[in-house]
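In the current project phase, we have settled on a layout for protein records. A sample record is reproduced below.
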Amino acid sequence: MNLPDDPFVRELLPEFVDTWIQDIDNQFPVMIAEKNNDDVYRFGHTLKGSCFQFGLEEIAHLGIELMTLAKETRWDESVQMVAQIRSKFVVMREFLEKNPL
């Protein structure tokens, strides 16, 4: 697992991860139910940018894939992608809990 070296970023990482898990759980189902590809695209775009800033490149690349799925209105695959993204955040949260600063 590749974590950022910056101690300030590392300090913020647990809250960042928890916030994304909450956003996935609360916001994404609504976007899918409404078939709102613009919001799903923005969700993926924000995920990409913020994860790159925190050094979570693997999740950032999944955000890029989500953007593509949103553009192509591939709803079932979008749901699967977000489940994969969520599981990556859960693994990260578990890692951070076992390996505090």
